[in-house]
């Protein structure tokens, strides 16, 4: 079997990339797995940081294919009519008005130019899917495609055909309104969604073009740090006893600018507290006694910092699962999540493990509320979140569902 993904291996930081790596680790003991991917570590530039060719990584064969660096003079843009469609459909959803999912003026190929300009455009990878064979037979019995947004999956799946599994990691964002994605979801032999909210979004966008599908999720397992590790991590960064934490890429598009804006005044209203950013990104963080940025840290250090926090804040609107939020819940840490993400709102509503907000003013109120909440009430929220994760995302159940999905797709007709 092959696994197609936009980036793979050490240095490829992202939720979809983690998801793919975990999938490969699960499948490798049971199947002959080959990963087909780019040479990039950075999804902003698509610079070829790694050598093309065949390598051995994570215990499997990894084939990296060359691609051009992103051309910032010809930025990938979604055509205006499709951007307008996104806002119109969101309004219709809010008003619960039925609407036509495909316009008669659309061409199925609308979107291919965007995909090529966005990258990574690995033409030899596509050749491997469409023409690669051994003794006249397809090289692979089944191909698993990760992340519908990127060219290797959005075009590669159409080249390959029905013996496929699509893990779309779908977000409600402008490119996903392009007509191209109707045929991507229609072509997949089996689609695996992370959450019910993600599956419902796909059906709102693509209707009957979403074929056979299952809600499977991803495995959540963390090693709980002990009190000594939590105290040591807090001491390393000189953190107060009560602090909030954000984990992930530090980007405006991840909601970090809104989080910083909401945090202004919170520390003054609640002395002896701090907001800690764990990660890196393009958005600078001006550090102060109330705002810290650790950069990337080891997993054990990250988990200790999260476990010691009063709450984890997840301000992103574009999530198909949010492993960071679920791992915080598994550590019995309450969460504050952006209600504009249906996925995050469902996690919090179903678990009763935290608070949701809409807009900066509600976010500021939620930050203050969580910092002022008595310890006993915060522990109750944390335990509710932990029970939810243990019930819905146990690794053994998810791994079994992944294996079954691959074997089912391999049995489909070409």
Brief rundown of the structure:
With 414 residues, the chain is an alpha/beta fold. It has helices at residues 15-27, 80-95, 112-118, 123-131, 151-160, 180-187, 196-206, 227-236, 256-263, 266-269, 299-307, 323-330, 342-351, 359-372, 375-392, 395-410; strands spanning 2-4, 34-38, 53-57, 60-65, 133-134, 137-138, 143-146, 164-167, 190-193, 213-215, 242-247, 273-278, 291-295, 311-314, 335-338, 354-357. The model has no long low-confidence stretch (mean pLDDT 88).
The structural class is: alpha/beta
**Structural shape:** globular
What average pLDDT do the residues reach?
88
Distance between the terminal alpha carbons, to the nearest Å?
14 Å
Order of strands across the main sheet = 3-4-2-1-7-8-9-10
What profile does the largest beta sheet have? 8 strands, mixed
Which blocks of ≥5 consecutive residues have pLDDT under 50?
A: none
The percentage helix is 40-55%
Q: Rg from C-alpha positions? A: 22 Å
